[in-house]
Amino acid sequence: MSKSRKDGIPKTYAKIQFCLSDRDVESLTATEKKNPYSPKGPAMKLYKREELERLAVRKFGSLEKLEEERQRRQERRNSVAKTRPELDSFSVAKAASHAEAGDPDAGLGLPPLLSERVRVVRSPAREPAPGSLVLYWMKAALRGHHNPALDAARREAAKRGAELAVAAPVLLDCPHANARRVKFVLEGLRDAQRELGAAGVDLLVHVP
């Protein structure tokens, strides 16, 4: 057994092995450990096997029911693997688990490799009223095409009957800011603003 398994089970493996959602595992106490695969990234969250098992039994009723659910999800993963041959086995497992575990972000319409990185920061106290605004904060992909997160925002706005607005910050005081970088960002936003405007979407550029 690897040291990480002795210390605990990483969140992604825990969700797959015990058929749990993000919301399920976040009810448990986790220990944090430096991620050996991404030393500069966020710490790994590790969970105790016995606590995961107890939680899964409460959710599904018994270990036998949990095993039945595992088998059902394995069949689902096999189906995903057939339709998405470009994914490796681990990505297939994560995608299927994420979609089936009842995660609140599973319906955003993102590709699996992006969807698994999404988390809900704050859920609304009540369902937003029809006609409310959906705001997409454009920070990385400064374009109106080949932008899955923007596509997801479009779908969410259409589903809610809401207006879509796009906002983009131009950070002048970040460590890597210089004249050439700011010029590059502004030119990209100008092109994105033109492209989105043709589709009837406003892009608001914010310069602090």
TrEMBL record:
One of its GO terms (molecular function) is deoxyribodipyrimidine photo-lyase activity. One of its GO terms (cellular component) is nucleus. Signal peptide: none annotated. GO terms for biological process: photoreactive repair. Keywords: Lyase, Nucleus, Zinc. Residues 132-208 form the Photolyase/cryptochrome alpha/beta domain. InterPro entries: Crypto/Photolyase_N_sf (IPR036155), DNA-bd_dom_put_sf (IPR009061), DNA_photolyase_N (IPR006050), Photolyase_Class-2 (IPR052219), Rossmann-like_a/b/a_fold (IPR014729), XPA_C (IPR022656), XPA_sf (IPR037129). Residues 69-89 are annotated as: Disordered. It is found in: Nucleus. Pfam families: DNA_photolyase (PF00875), XPA_C (PF05181). Residues 69-87 have a biased composition (Basic and acidic residues). PANTHER family: DEOXYRIBODIPYRIMIDINE PHOTO-LYASE, DEOXYRIBODIPYRIMIDINE PHOTOLYASE. This is Cryptochrome photolyase fad-binding domain-containing protein. It comes from Tetraselmis sp. GSL018.
